[in-house]
Design a protein that fits this description.
Number of strands: 2
Number of helices: 4
Largest sheet: 2 strands, antiparallel
Helix content: 55-70%
Shape: elongated
Strand content: 5-15%
Order of helices and strands: HHEEHH
């Protein structure tokens, strides 16, 4: 069987790039999600504080994705309003702010790889 010179080094380089990319993505996902959570907690209207305390972040897929959510049943009514209550958005504006930063940070993480 023929042997390709430098193949081992090439494979190690590709693995290193893959590991660095994964690490960078996880860092950006985590930081963005935690900032989104913080912004949502800052923006949410407070009566008893129950809704604010219920906003949490969970990392998923080994840290490659995240979910910022609440399990409070009236959360959607606060965010989007009802026929008797005006909307008081907190998650939507927090998401809009974090989306732009997420894209910028992800691009920066890719540039750091210097491929």
């Amino acid at each position: 069987m023929a042997e390709i010179e430098g193949l081992d080094r090439f494979i190690r380089t590709i693995q290193s790039i893959s590991d660095s990319l994964e690490s960078g993505v996880k860092q950006v996902v985590s930081q963005t999600a935690l900032q989104l959570e913080s912004d949502a907690k800052r923006l949410v209207p407070v009566d008893t504080g129950h809704l604010r305390r219920s906003i949490t972040t969970s990392l998923e897929s080994g840290g490659m994705s995240a979910m910022v959510s609440t399990n409070v049943e009236y959360a959607l009514a606060v965010e989007f309003g009802t026929s008797r209550q005006a909307a008081k958005p907190y998650m939507t504006p927090a998401h809009a702010r974090s989306k732009t930063k997420y894209i910028e940070d992800m691009k920066a993480a890719l540039r750091r790889l210097s491929i």
